[in-house]
Amino acid sequence: MTKEDIKEMVSCYMIDTYERFDFVAETAKDMYIYDENGDAYLDFYAGIAVNSAGNCNEAVVAAVRDQVGDIMHTFNYPYTIPQALLAKKICTTIGMDKIFFQNSGTEANEAMIKMARKYGTENYGPDKYEIITAKASFHGRTFGAMSATGQPATACQIGFGSMTPGFVYAEFNNLDSFKDAVTENTIAILVEPIQGEGGVHPATKEFMQGLRALCDEKKLLLLLDEVQTGWCRTGEVMAYMHYDVKPDIVSMAKAMGGGMPIGAICANREVAGAFSMGAHGTTYGGNPVCCAAALAQIEELLDRDLAGNAKKMGEYFMNLLKQLPNVKEVRGMGLLVGVEFDDSISGVDVKHKCYDNKLLLTAIGRHMIRMVPPLILSEKECDEAFHIIQKSIQELK
Ligand SMILES: Cc1ncc(COP(=O)(O)O)c(C=O)c1O
User: Fold this and answer.
1) Together in a domain, 44 and 62
2) Alpha carbon of 228 to ligand 1 centroid (Å)
3) Which residues line ligand 1 (CB under 6 A)?
4) CA 178 from chain center: how many Å?
5) What is the maximal distance between C-alpha atoms in the chain?
6) CA–CA separation, 23 vs 90, rounded Å?
7) Which of 46, 286, 331, 347 is the right S-S partner for 363, CB 3.0 to 4.6 Å?
8) Cα 83 to the chain's mean position, in Å?
9) Count of structural domains, the chain
10) Same domain, 105 and 197
């Protein structure tokens, strides 16, 4: 089958919501993806912040192979070994009491929203379910998560009719804006520690600690969406560890599964109690193959100190990126990195040129590129990516 055959079939049969890279991804290893001709692309998007221990990490692949031959799926009636081991590993590593497994980031956020609302109505009355989220946030594509997303004028919300009620939006990194949004019906505040889709904006320490204090004062829950920032990407295991705050519920997905679809929420014991028998459920969440993969992935991330490497390489790479032409600002934390160019440079054009030059990255907004490479990278790959971006910008002029 040729690339053209494959493209023809996709165009004929698939509902098309994605702007594709013009190649067939046939294999991948560590920092590279290989196309139908065996050409290598330097991977600075990692399946959107997923393949953090490297593409096709050997330990993850072995764990999947081992588990798939034993038992692939059971639903959550019987106990399974990978599920129990993963639950203990995650809770003890990040210091949370309880976990609930889901299949993706948006589902994890749905679970987080549902848990907070149920906790609110059960403890304080039927109207206590409002959640304050941030403008320009991104929480996913299912109705609760997309309603929590503070982007009313973008394709993720336009044309879908009314959003789920119960969400109020405040300015990210503006504590007063969140304080002003609190009403008698508010039960929780939900933010990303770094707004990724919203333009790579890290929360300030003052803001994050201020939110925690506000939640404590008003008896609100602090919900953190760590779907993109969790599991070592920012230079700590979870991004909230940079801020010396602890959430009441945190969501995670992406990097935790190393390429297998899994997400989760972790909550403190009291709040987790809102999910009583039958209150929530999922057919696939906690699937043993995904749990085995996630356990192997998390062990790789921790044992190889890939958070430490993300911190070190993030600093090195961001310093290089500041030397690019037409840069307005380089922002990020660890290896969640964004470059904002001046108005003369389009992020999408840079993305396309980098693709031509065999570097894969993503564009966000009009003048930004975002990079979320595997956390195993070295200075050599940072240099290589920098030179390709530099050359690509020159070629655009
Ligand atoms: C912060 C954040 N939350 C939620 C999601 C949704 O995750 P998923 O695509 O796994 O549903 C994303 C995806 O990019 C994200 O970045």
Assistant:
1) no
2) 6
3) 48, 104-106, 109, 138-140, 192, 196-197, 225, 227-228, 253
4) 23
5) 63
6) 36
7) 347
8) 21
9) 2
10) yes
Percent of the residues in the chain that have a pLDDT greater than 90, as a whole number: 98
User: Do 386 and 238 sit in the same domain of this protein?
Assistant: no
In this predicted structure, the answer to whether residue 380 has a pLDDT above a threshold of 90 is yes
Beta carbons of 312 and 304 less than 8 angstroms apart: no
* Residue nearest ligand 1's atom 7 by CA: 105
Task: Clarify whether residues 124 and 238 are in a common domain.
Answer: yes
Is 27 a residue whose pLDDT tops 90?
yes
The SS3 call for residue 176 is: helix
- Residue 222: per-residue pLDDT: 99
Which atom of ligand 1 is nearest to 229's Cα?
1
**CB-based burial of residue 138 (10 Å sphere; 0-12 exposed, 13-18 middle, 19+ buried)?**
buried
Host domain of residue 245: 58-303
pTM score above 0.85 = yes
**In the structure encoding, which two tokens stand for residue 378, read together?**
């070295």
Span from the CA of 2 to the centroid of ligand 1 (angstroms): 32
Beta strand segments in 159-206, E: 167-170, 186-191, 194-195, 201-202
Count Cα atoms within 13 angstroms, Cβ side, for 18.
9
pLDDT at position 366: 92
Residue nearest to atom 13 of ligand 1 (CA): 140
How distant is the alpha carbon of residue 343 from its chain centre? 28
Pocket test for ligand 1, best of 254, 284, 364 (most atoms within 8 A of CB): 254
- Residue 373: give its domain's CATH number: 3.90.1150.10
> Tokens for 240?
């909230």
Q: Which of 102, 228, 262 to mutate to test the pocket of ligand 1 (most atoms within 8 A of CB)?
A: 228
Residues 143, 155 contacting (CB under 8 angstroms): no
CATH number at residue 271: 3.40.640.10
Q: Is the same domain home to 169 and 236?
A: yes
pLDDT digits (tens, 9 = 90+) for 83-107: 999 999 999 999 999 999 999 999 9
At what angle are helices 81-94 and 288-303 packed, to 10 degrees?
Answer: 40
Q: Give the position, in ligand 1's atom list, of the atom nearest the Cα of 109.
A: 4
Compute the average pLDDT of residues 312-324: 98
